[in-house]
Amino acid sequence: MDASVIIIGAGMAGLGCAERLMGSSKSVIVLEASSRVGGRVYTNRSSSMPIDLGAQWIHGDQGNPITALAKKFGIESLPFIHDTLYYPLSGQEPLHLNNDTIEEEFGSCLQKASLFASNASHDLSLKDAMAKVSPNFKNDTEKGIWDAQIIRTGLINAGDPWSISARHIQKGKSFEGSDRWFPDGYDQISQKLARGIDIRLNHSVFSITKIENGVMVDTNQGMFTAQKVVITVPLGILKGRVIEFNPSLPSSKLKAIQMLEMGVLNKTVMVFEDRFWPRTGHLMPPQSDSLLHKSFSCMESYHKPFLIGWSVGEKALELEKLSDVICSERALSTIRQMVGDTGENPIVFEASRWAADLYTYGSYSFVPVNASFDEYDVLSQPFESLHFAGEATNSDYPGTVHGAYLSGVREAERIAES
Description:
Elements: E1 3-8, H1 12-21, E2 28-31, E3 43-44, E4 51-52, H2 65-73, E5 78-80, E6 84-86, E7 95-96, H3 100-119, H4 126-133, H5 140-157, E8 179-181, H6 187-194, E9 199-200, E10 205-211, E11 214-219, E12 222-231, H7 235-239, E13 244-246, H8 251-259, E14 261-263, E15 265-271, E16 282-284, E17 295-299, E18 306-312, H9 313-320, H10 324-339, E19 348-351, E20 364-366, H11 374-380, E21 386-388, H12 401-417
Parallel strand pairs: 1-2, 1-12, 2-9, 6-16, 10-13, 12-21
Antiparallel strand pairs: 3-4, 5-8, 6-7, 10-11, 11-12, 14-20, 15-18, 15-19, 16-17, 17-18
Helix pairs in contact: 1-12, 3-4, 8-11
């Protein structure tokens, strides 16, 4: 055997699993198809400052393992307040979506929508269920605020509101505390985690086959054998059947892979010489079907100020077909619609295209209409000598960096105890 355990994928789940197993008697090899570690934690360092095109936040810093890792490695993070300025119409004063009244009313309606869908004979989309419980709007501004919050919920889940299951919209857990971000790049975490681990980059896995006393992994750089294999590849790779399993995965696991959806959330990052927007967390324009960027995050540190435009679902896919020039022009047009034209142009521009990424085929998972959170638990279950980790195997924290990391730790502990 080449190792006790082979881990497929050097994202946060794979690194978390390998790090934990390194403290045991198990020998570990990590096979990574791409030329870098981190997976969907991706910091572009080709310009004058680090730009995160993948994961952005520590979601809740109290008790979060990513907070603990940052402290352990001495990596600076900054708090981020998700205050959102919504611009209803050109020339009108922006409104704070995060005021207590608006948040409480929308949160209450979200609960009612989820309950309505749960009691219905069939599941409903977030959009349809919210329409069933919507209040009577006094004017277009109130309706615009409502639509903006539904879109914002879609952004969090990496899906369009008409695709997301209303029954399961409020399931899962979260950590308390502030959200934080890394001004010098999220990849500091993955780079530090990777130290001392036997990671083989540019190793694409073709198939995983059960053999006597273990498992054989066929790659573009030869065969590897181990007693156990931990598969941490993104849901998009499993849905695309990029890896052949011999024997085939059980029907329950195949069904879970089919039922869950791989969401697409893309970033448009624009760095400017000076800030020309209000000091707030997010800017949100009046929503329309043609709008490419649904929201903009306002980022400031000791580096240059920058904006992150967020595109989700169908619009995220549309973005991937556009040139950087067109994408930048459309983002700037939306920003100027909100804060006016100051003549500022970005000095650095970057855009993610996660659906086209051959190593992910999307951003992160969500539960679509007619699927269930139970699919996450089905995916997490071992199958003979195969173990599964990744954000799409964590029903407590799907779609998060900490969820991915914790799933890798979970499988390492399961293997160590076996």
